From TrEMBL:
Residues 1-23 form the signal peptide. Keywords: Disulfide bond, Endonuclease, Glycoprotein, Hydrolase, Lyase, Nuclease, Signal. It comes from Alectoria fallacina. Pfam families: Ribonuclease_T2. The keyword Signal applies. This is ribonuclease T2. GO terms for molecular function: hydrolase activity; ribonuclease T2 activity; RNA binding. The active site is at H77, E135, H139. It comes from the Eukaryota.
Amino acid sequence: MPSYTSFLSSAIGAFLLSSPALAFSEQCSTFEYPLSCHNKSAVANTCCFNYPGGNLLQTQFWDTDPATGPADHWTVHGLWPDECNGSYQQYCDETRQYKNITQILEHFNRYDLLDYMSVYWKDDGGNDESFWEHEWGKHGTCISTFDTSCYTDYVPTQEVVDFFQKTLQLFSALDTYTFLNDAGIVPSTTKTYTYAEIRKALVQDRHVNATIECTGANSTELDEVYYYYNVYGSAQDGTYIPAQPDTNSSSCPMTGIQYLPKNLTSTPVQNGTYKFI
């Protein structure tokens, strides 16, 4: 029987998937431009071709102590534009380091996004707003198709709405908890899993690998998953193609990986240490 939080994720996710991006300047035909990271020569129009960050990663957290989000669901970390060789840019526009994400989304009447984020985009230090600001400022400003010049009749901060909407659209279709559960990988304080078992479980739905990361004193506690995409067209409304990771590196060991239950009796501490990557 699906949990209420899983039902909420699916229902709101379906709504998010049906919500169009705001007015976008370029009518980017899906296959008019090459798939990001697959071009043979330079592409000048970076409003219809994501460059240099052509690998878009939807990244997720499994925070256990302090715990964030529902007990049976992973939470959003962000949407990152990695370059095709695994490197990345950051803080690409100092003029758009916005400090009022909630107010921006409210201004555009996107209370649906805020409601979803209040459940699934949580900061383990207790300061969600700062987390959202960080993810936009460090990563969102480096996605070329979110540049303000890519919009017709640009309304200030409308690209921020598109960033959060697209991140949540991708996240709502990537139910990591279910992917693992279907393979018999469930949170436990006693059982451990192998790197190969976890990677195999995550490949079933998308048919490409995902990157897993671990934390803890010995880096044995599973706490992050990165899903890679290349894109035809803009990040706003292009076609996302599941892609292989641009690196095989992982902080997790080959064996003895713990997938701990969330300690939902713990309380996030305001101004705590943020997992800003």
